[in-house]
Amino acid sequence: MTIVILFGTFVTALVIGIPVSVSLGISAIVSYVYSDIPLVMIGQKLFTGMDSASLMAIPLFILAGNIMTDGGISKRIVDFVNCLTYRVRGSLGYTAVLACAIFAALSGSGPATVIAIGSMLYPAMKDMGYPPKTSAGLLAVAGGLGPVIPPSIIMIVYGTLTGVSITKMFAVGMFWGIVTVLVFCGIAAVMAYTQKWPRAQAEHGNFKGFLKIFLNSLPALLIPVIILGGIYSGLFTPTESAGIAVVTALIIGIFVYKELKLKDLPRILTASAKGSAAIMFIIACASSFSYFFSITGLSGGISSFVVNSHMSPTVFLLFCFVLLVVFGMFMDGTSIAVLLVPLLYPVVQSLGIDGVHFGIIFCILNSLGCCTPPVAVNIFGMSNISRLNVEDISKGEMPFFIANLIIVLFIILVPQITLLVCP
Fold first, then answer.
1. Rounded to whole angstroms, what are the CA distances from 36 to 28, 44, 57, 366?
2. CA dist., res. 393 & res. 140, Å (int)
3. pLDDT tens per residue across span 284-319
4. What's the rounded Cα separation, in Å, for the pair 345 and 351?
5. How far is residue 361 from each of residues 28, 42, 128, 256, measured CA to CA in Å?
6. Considering the entire predicted model, what is its pTM?
7. How far apart are CA 292 and CA 339, in angstroms?
8. Phi, psi for 237 (deg, rounded to 5)
């Protein structure tokens, strides 16, 4: 009955249009009252849910991403990547994938990557004659590399909730992120030659032009090197890297490219604060929701049920695959993480599944949730940029979306690769 009340209240609140974060809080309050749990525990869990040094990386990476967009850093990244691919048919398709991958390594956010790169590349792709639906779909899915390629906000949330090493998650995420980039580029190559995508008419057709663009882009390209190099070398933690990303982006945007003005900072800080507050509020409300699982023994009961049913680790991961795809259609990534990870992770431990292996599966499926209607923030972002409807973009993204699903299934069925990569 407690499960019925908890999830029944949550689903009812969602159906009548209450935001996810508030729905989590309401369902927690109703369940606490039904179970005679002191309501003071909700206030305590709202605070302790956010009282984590690791979570400080989230607002800092959001701020860094906004600074890089306004400071001309993301534009230089696009210019450099396009410089590498311009001679190839369908070059802007490769540019889209590679630019999204690099920007994902700076912002850690899928929707931020879609907005930053999509707003620059989609108009150019449309003007050159690329298929509008496919172009928008490619950018929507490639923007989903944000939760996969480190530093990733979802990986930080997952590591905070489970205690799994965030640095190990970053290392594995980098490997599978590169694999995904190669697969997307392969699909783009096939489509470019079968559908006769155009070639770019670039102005850097000689070594001198290439060198000029490279030198201009070098400060922007150094940011992911500094961030990721510092994390993997052990010089600083993921949270410290977020602060370094902010400072580095400010210096480059103001003093190197000179596109960022001091008068722009209040607007950037306000937008970053709003985005951070939305995520942190979800985490806070979900903490009181998740606490109900532990105090009532629901997590342990579900874990015992799975173990007693003799479900194999592979079958359980396939069940999670379906579960996360379905949840991704209706909830944003952070909400899914704080709602399901505390419920599923005890089962993961009881079945002997490696926490990093489950984490990378969770993060990739989480990124796919940004591309599955009706709640698909990446598609909505591209819809605002391209003026295409959600249905058209959903059709255009299908080849890349299906490829991503196949990658996840491969990770599930061949866990040895992830365990080999994990340091």
1. 12, 16, 36, 34
2. 8
3. 777 777 677 667 666 566 667 766 777 889 999 998
4. 10
5. 28, 31, 37, 39
6. 0.77
7. 11
8. -80, 165
